[in-house]
Backbone:
């Protein structure tokens, strides 16, 4: 009985040291270290009805999470509500912070899924309305660590205005590509 308990304890301890895909804490720390840096590049934005736009001079910071500024400018062209479009123009861009979930890796490529936090821009009390942007959890990207290159996708999926869901929010995808300098 004691041997069985020792075996179960050891098995539980070993399996708790790895995440669902078999990445140990050390593997995750190594991946974060290899991806660490400030990346400069472009963002390609695609959306409904053939919407296609490229934004230059984009920057992403990778540390223990991914931080980047997301321009709301593409929405100004896609949203017909002039008040909301003007509000997005006033905001300009938002800072998005996304955690990593590592899917795969080989010697030079790290494949990951992103878990972006919702972004809330407070308003009210005579100010413009409070806006909350909810992101899809189904996007991610790749880091080519030998080439100091990162590419990822992110997509805002829902827009909430003063607690009410905005039903006509267009679904667009931002695709970032950049190199570490």
Residues:
């Amino acid at each position: 009985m004691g041997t069985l308990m020792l075996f179960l304890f050891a098995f539980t301890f070993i399996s708790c040291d790895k995440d669902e895909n078999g990445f140990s804490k050390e593997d995750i720390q190594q991946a974060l270290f290899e991806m660490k840096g400030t990346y400069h590049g472009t963002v390609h934005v695609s959306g409904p009805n053939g919407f296609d736009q490229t934004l230059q001079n984009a920057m992403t910071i990778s540390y223990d999470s991914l931080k980047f500024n997301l321009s709301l400018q593409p929405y100004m062209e896609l949203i017909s509500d002039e008040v909301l479009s003007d509000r997005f123009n006033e905001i300009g861009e938002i800072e998005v912070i996304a955690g990593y979930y590592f899917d795969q890796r080989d010697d030079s490529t790290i494949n990951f899924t992103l878990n972006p936090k919702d972004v809330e821009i407070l308003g009210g009390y005579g100010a413009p309305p409070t806006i909350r942007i909810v992101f899809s959890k189904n996007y991610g990207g790749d880091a080519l660590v030998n080439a100091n290159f990162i590419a990822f996708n992110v997509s805002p999926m829902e827009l909430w205005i003063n607690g009410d869901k905005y039903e006509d929010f267009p679904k667009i995808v931002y695709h970032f590509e950049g190199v570490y300098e």
